[in-house]
Amino acid sequence: MTAFQNLQDEICQSLEELDGEGKFAQDLWTMSSGGGGGRTRIIEAAHIEKGGVNFSHVSGTVSDQLKKILKKEGKQYHATGVSIVLHPVNPFVPIIHMNIRYFEMDDEIWWFGGGIDLTPHYIDDSEAAFLHESLRSVCDRTDKAYYSRFKQWADDYFFIRHRQETRGVGGIFFDRLDQSEGHSKEELFDFVLGVGQEFTKIYKQLFVKNFQRKYTDDNVAWRNYRRGRYVEFNLVWDRGTRFGLETGGRTESILMSLPATANWIYDYKPEANSAEAHTQARLKKGVDWIV
Amino acid sequence: MTAFQNLQDEICQSLEELDGEGKFAQDLWTMSSGGGGGRTRIIEAAHIEKGGVNFSHVSGTVSDQLKKILKKEGKQYHATGVSIVLHPVNPFVPIIHMNIRYFEMDDEIWWFGGGIDLTPHYIDDSEAAFLHESLRSVCDRTDKAYYSRFKQWADDYFFIRHRQETRGVGGIFFDRLDQSEGHSKEELFDFVLGVGQEFTKIYKQLFVKNFQRKYTDDNVAWRNYRRGRYVEFNLVWDRGTRFGLETGGRTESILMSLPATANWIYDYKPEANSAEAHTQARLKKGVDWIV
Fold first, then answer.
1. Is residue A54 part of a domain?
2. Does residue A78 fall inside a structural domain?
3. Which domain holds residue A260?
4. Is residue A110 a contact partner of residue A104, using CB atoms and an 8 Å limit?
5. Among partner residues A232, A248, A255, which is closest to B264 by beta-carbon distance?
6. How many domains does chain B have?
7. Which of B78, B97, B121, B183 is flagged as catalytic?
8. pLDDT band at B72, cuts 50/70/90?
9. How many angstroms away from the CA of A261 is the closest CA of chain B?
10. Which residues, in sequence order, are CB contacts of A85 under 8 Å at separation 6+?
């Protein structure tokens, strides 16, 4: 899967160009038990306040805990993936997340998973439409049924249950895509790589459009408040994060997804008819962003 | 259980006196399903940056989910408690948590739970000793075996597994104390009320000693970084928080435990031999704080 490592390289290079000043720092790590490790790359910069672009490839004996989670029997596994979260400085640039992953057990069982979802601090309907159109076109190249299915999956997955609100404007999410999909491993591999490549195009457009917009202290306060929700989702509900923390994954690589700073205000409600109230009201499942 | 409500009143009054300026705001709420509700009281003030002192009393039909968690059969339940978390402004004043609770099912099954634990941003061994001596003396009044047992329980409970560090200097934690303890319901009720009353004495001493100490921006940065750990513990591991969020409890009352602001810095390590490094090194289970 050098393709995944190459993708990580390409994305980091593009993001450094976007930020203009920041450079990724790299930590190479190896698993304390089992085999493999990863390349964790973190940027803390002028425009991308905190971001991570991680590659990992781990392998080992299938534990009882893993069997329980997978609901499958197996002996040896390999898992590899690229995972990204970016927290920008400018409140008008959205938070973005991308992940693609491949899992294999005993040479017989294999699947792909992944997705992209966008968490704007301020929802702009045209930007949400652009995101979803981009994702639909990537999906359509492999399977015309994918977009609507994976869009709904994202709505369900990126849902903050205790707030009854979505994490943002969604995107696509998919898991355990295998031969039962009617596509070969090569086709599905191309699909997830396509998702990874689309990530850069999407974020570049949203970043360039907004990163120099003027903003106020109130915009920053709202950004930090929304980041609090991001923390809540990731620590309470995100299965990937929880699986990692519960199974002794590398904590600092997993929690690169958390923002540099997040705020909580008791029972905060945005002012009626404000941009903040508009965003709050749009955080629902089932919105057709493509008009 | 008007004693619990009275305790809430007393504690709020004492904390307002300590802060000197802040006043608690109260939200009365009722359960959307089942019966009962609560009095959530929040302070956002000059010295206590964000704190909650909550009382609740809820009742209802025992759900399948609750049976699974309790590992007991039952029809009707009552649960009541007082729960406190305070996040001070001054980095040399510790974060503190106190909770006492009573649970009853079908008039036959009942138990008490609770505890106090302290999370200093900067550990001061003499203050940790004072905390533990105070808690030992409260425990000893009911049962000489309680302190060492509940101290260890707190070490195990307030443990951030994915960091392999304790949340702070511990304290006491206990759950499901019932007649099998060899104490009557009245004795155990007195015990938990004693814990609640001790809370004020403990916090007053630590607060008054430190709230006017001078501090630097670096102290604030470290405070916010340690608050990040508090968020991680509460959202990932705290059973009370997770139970509440997963069973449709009142989110804003549950998450009053989160700080106004928290920071994350990738793979941060305090400077060698600094006060921060001293604190980091002391966050271990099994420390005998009483010397």
1. yes
2. yes
3. 2-282
4. yes
5. A255
6. 1
7. B97
8. confident
9. 4
10. A51, A52, A95, A96, A97, A256, A257
Cα dist. A107→A76, A176, B231 in Å? 9, 15, 40
| Tens-place pLDDT, residues A149-190 | 999 999 999 999 999 999 999 999 999 999 998 999 999 999
Query: Helix, strand or coil for residue B236?
Result: helix
Helices (H), chain B: 2-19, 64-70, 125-142, 146-157, 185-210, 217-232, 239-246, 251-254, 275-282
Instruction: Specify the residue for token string 């802040």.
Output: B22
Residue B288 domain-assigned? no
For residues B12 and B10, give the distance between their C-alpha atoms in angstroms, rounded to a whole number.
Answer: 6
Would you call B97 a catalytic residue per the annotation? yes
Q: By three-state DSSP, how is residue B7 classified? A: helix
Residues from chain B that touch A229, judged by Cβ atoms under 8 A, are none
| pLDDT tier for residue A1 given thresholds of 50, 70 and 90 | low
Looking at the domain assignment, is residue B287 inside a domain?
no
Catalytic residue ranges of A? 97
State ipTM: 0.95
Q: Which residues contact A240 (CB under 8 A, 6 or more apart)?
A: A83, A99
Q: Which residue has the tokens 């969020």?
A: B245
Residue numbers in A near B29 (CB within 8 A): none
User: Domain containing B7 — which CATH number?
Assistant: 3.40.1500.10
Please tell me the pTM assigned to this model.
0.96
User: Terminal CA-to-CA distance of chain A, rounded, Å?
Assistant: 37
Give the integer Cα–Cα distance in Å for A20 and A45.
9
Residues in chain A with CB shorter than 8 Å from the CB of B263 are 260-261
CB A84 within 8 A of CB A97: yes
